[in-house]
Write a structure and sequence with these properties.
Layout lengths: L6 H9 L9 H4 L1 H12 L4 E5 L8 E7 L2 E7 L5 E5 L14 E3 L3 E2 L6 E2 L5 E3 L18 E5 L2 E5 L8 H11 L7 E11 L3 H8 L5 H4 L1 H6 L9 H21 L5 E2 L7 E7 L27 E7 L3 E5 L4 E10 L2 E11 L10 H26 L14 H15 L14
Antiparallel strand pairs: 1-10, 2-3, 2-5, 3-4, 6-7, 7-8, 9-10, 11-17, 12-13, 13-14, 14-15, 15-16, 16-17
Helix pairs in contact: 5-9
Amino acid sequence: MANELPVWVQTLIERRRPGYGLDRAFYIDPAIFEIDMERIFMRHWLYAGHVSSIPNAGDYMLYEIGGESIILIRSETGAVNALFNVCRHRGSRICLTERGTARRLVCPYHAWVYAADGSLVQARHMPEDFNRADYGLQTCHVRVVEGLIFICCAETPPPFDTIAHDIADYFGPYELARTQPAHRVRHVIAANWKIVAENFFECYHCSHTHPEFCSVMSYGRALDTRSGARDHAAFVAEWEQIAAREGWRTGGVAITDSTVHQIQRTPIRRGYLTQSEGGAPVAPLLGRLTAYDGAVTAIQMYPLIWLLACSDHAMLSRFTPLSPQETELELTWMVREGAVAGRDYDPERVSWLWRVTAEEDKIICENNQRGVASRRYIPGPYATTEGSVEHLVAWYLREIADPAPFPYPLASGAL
């Protein structure tokens, strides 16, 4: 059957030792990359962007993933629709620019016309028995939570209600739907998406690769010494006492073997109000906040989603696999809607921490990729502080081994 996992890939899965890294092929082989696209990225919910990118009716943006192009377009009612960018006539791409505004979507090839909900409005010179209702654009599942746009390309998507509830619960006070971009950068990281994911899901590397991060986040070096661990534990206890008094949210949502997301409220450092150089405010308070709480709220979600918010700004990261050894990272920093650059905030100060950290991560991920591509690479054991990586890898292997049907309808003759 076309959907069976190749025997050699199944063998790699079976021989992998728990607590150890993946075999070299998982990071370089084009066939495994295609399996990843089909069984991971075409099956699961993905973060596609923020509603501020399409504020008005007719505004659209494209999200490209795994060879698919998805049109995210705002309708007259304000809803966000997700449509496959494939004309139902002969398959041409319809939207050719990354962003734009269109009252109707018109195919540039034969001028078939579609509404913002994907329905076919006009098709010239078709037979009398042609029914326009049968030829609307194929739709992609879309959910918008706190201004964050999530899509799923599968015909039947995994459950999302619990994820949506937890995001609204923990990120609601920031009112991310009422934020605007302050700065944006893109990196093409010369590394497989799993190399990137493993890096961003652990901090074992932080103390000796991210000096800026460790100057801000107190836990960065906390586990390197007993005194550091004691001091960090004391600081967290102090912050939680203050949080209880002020009514600030603490705790989080733990990931399990049956879920794909975790959320954590983490205090920054004594005297630090936000994730900035020196800890001083860098922008107006977000949403319903009336004071700086000195903490960051972050969500990590499989396969590779990582979003966070401080009292005065948010950082939204979008990871997109491009090829077996390339991953795009787009970072967008958000500030309060209506804030004015140069008066209310400085884009360089807002973006400083994660901008420099991402640049460092790009280097170490690319070094890692070059190493695992060696014929002499042998997977080594994870450290005791890399449990999150083991959890991610175990989930990944279960997912690609899952013999579920194709995540979308097959065209006739495809098998």
